[in-house]
Amino acid sequence: AKSNEPQAAPPVVHYYMNNVTNSRTPVENSETVLILTPLARFYQEYWDNLLKLSYPHDLISLGFIIPKTKEGNLAYTALQTQVTKTQSGPKSKRFASVTILRQDTENPLQSQLESERHKMENQKARRAAMAKARNSLLFTTLGPTTSWVLWMDADIIETQPTLIQDLAAYDVPIIAPNCFQRYYNEEEKRNDIREYDYNNWIDSPTAKELAAKMGKDDILLEGYAEMPTYRSLMAKMYDKSGDPGAKVKLDGVGGATLLVKAEVHRDGAMFPPFAFYHLIETEGFAKMANRLNWESFGLPNYLVYHYNE
Amino acid sequence: AKSNEPQAAPPVVHYYMNNVTNSRTPVENSETVLILTPLARFYQEYWDNLLKLSYPHDLISLGFIIPKTKEGNLAYTALQTQVTKTQSGPKSKRFASVTILRQDTENPLQSQLESERHKMENQKARRAAMAKARNSLLFTTLGPTTSWVLWMDADIIETQPTLIQDLAAYDVPIIAPNCFQRYYNEEEKRNDIREYDYNNWIDSPTAKELAAKMGKDDILLEGYAEMPTYRSLMAKMYDKSGDPGAKVKLDGVGGATLLVKAEVHRDGAMFPPFAFYHLIETEGFAKMANRLNWESFGLPNYLVYHYNE
Ligand SMILES: Nc1nc2c(ncn2[C@@H]2O[C@H](COP(=O)(O)OP(=O)(O)O)[C@@H](O)[C@H]2O)c(=O)[nH]1
Ligand SMILES: Nc1nc2c(ncn2[C@@H]2O[C@H](COP(=O)(O)OP(=O)(O)O)[C@@H](O)[C@H]2O)c(=O)[nH]1
Ligand SMILES: [Mn+2]
Ligand SMILES: [Mn+2]
What we know:
Two copies of one chain form a homodimer. Chain A has one domain (26-306): Spore Coat Polysaccharide Biosynthesis Protein SpsA, Chain A, CATH 3.90.550.10. Chain A contains eight helices and 13 strands. Chain A has helices at residues 44-52, 70-87, 114-117, 120-141, 163-168, 205-212, 262-266, 281-291, and strands at 12-16, 32-38, 60-66, 97-102, 146-152, 156-158, 174-185, 190-195, 201-202, 232-233, 248-250, 257-261, 296-306. In chain A, strands 2, 3, 4, 5, 6, 7, 8, 11, 12 and 13 form a ten-stranded mixed β-sheet that branches. Chains A and B meet through strand 1, helix 2, strand 4, helix 4 and helix 7 of A and strand 1, helix 2, strand 4, helix 4 and helix 7 of B. Strand 1 of chain A pairs parallel with strand 4 of chain B. One guanosine-5'-diphosphate is lined by residues 38-41, 65-67, 103, 107, 117, 129-130, 133, 153-155 of chain B.
């Protein structure tokens, strides 16, 4: 603009938080959804699945945070290519906006191999780093008009196209589908499915006793034989012939796929990168939300699928 | 726009968190500052003081959250009038952007009178509500390019015009000036100053012992004779003839005036609305930041002034 042109006054925006609703029928109410993905590796299947979501894309904003690693650079380039393609493609597929953050902290683990990631001694540092990445992404992208936040890991490659509507219809503060994985069952010589994510659980007396005896910075981890917690794992509750709409109350949640009412985060619920009631990251998030009087739920028979490395 | 016009692709934004710096010389580096104010009452002196800040206004964004009360409505109208005036006035005084949020929760206290606010039995509910208001404001307005967050209460009516530069020059994660109040000293028949904010303190063995004996949801409060903590209060450290640049390490901070590097918040540091190590709100924030390895500091001899009701 020329310097002698009258300049528009800078933006002043007023928001009535009352008008930012969360309802069972978010599409009808034009509620906006922010999909947040920490992304270390890019899978085309993840992006294709995202594009198939039937929630109106003009009500969806995307946010990514990518680590400052060689692998992160590759993921960044691949993501950019797809974003550019989608955002200049058919209007009905375009998302309202896309924000891509590059992390400024080093990754505490050299290797992203599943075997390395899941080693128990590596878990605390890794999950603290993940928690900080999630917080950075959340604090930076949550806006005044966001109604829902859908956390979706970059290796979730298959969901129902109606995922958002299906989860929102339960009208609860925090809700997680059951995260499974497709694989080839060598014994039975056929394609099969198996449980993947153990972070969705109901607490147990054993876990509480373990926690009570721990040092203040120690954390409980789920899914390790060395530390049996006897928590009830949602992964184990899947019942093929059960009620597809079954819903259970959870004490810990995973972030692989998780729908959260934005007001839960706005009240202050974040992902503790430190031991919070001996819990960390997404499991600590469920506990923190609970301290803010928000409840978490899970859908044992509603599946989403994790990539099989 | 006509429906057959080619439509611009929706925004895709890329941010390198590395490039969002915090330095001793933020003006030279064009670092953006987000000034956040929970506002229940509007004081013209607060606004006039804000306008006098010499930090370039085009690098400053403002964010307000206003309660859903009669008093809040009045404050909202008064604020709007001033915002409109400033944002359509001389360019050098205009702020980069202004966001005004109206809270959707009821105020737990009926009366905003100082005597009511400061009653000990009212403190926990009141400070939990304040913490949630601060979190809502923070989560909603912090953007990807924000370098600094300046928390400034609506009843801070006098600071140095160089406040931001002065505090940033210390190059520490969290820093609080000393919050005083002007009053008429009846005894000495002259205008005088006295301490106001007791939330900036260094921890004490007594406070730690008190905390150790408390129920898990109980909180320690500062400035109440019923509960002497023997913490070292920054308010009491003011020394008129001391080093004006003196800096002390703090364990608890107030939010009346507080400069925070945005990365501290991005890591997840928020204002706990629940007992966090028996601390709540801004004092809990300092503790949480500490758990995230960020330190808090105070300037005993650098004063800002609170309104005298
Ligand atoms: N920003 C960021 N994302 C990461 C990092 N490590 C993993 N991720 C992503 O975070 C999500 C969860 O990590 P993942 O390794 O799949 O966890 P797992 O499935 O529980 O083993 C995935 O979307 C990863 O791509 C990291 O260091 N930074
Ligand atoms: N949004 C919001 N702001 C509030 C509320 N109560 C007080 N405030 C503001 O929060 C700040 C701190 O509150 P104040 O009552 O001054 O605290 P005190 O000085 O410690 O007694 C001031 O800027 C108030 O205007 C509330 O319920 N909601
Ligand atoms: Mn994964
Ligand atoms: Mn005040």
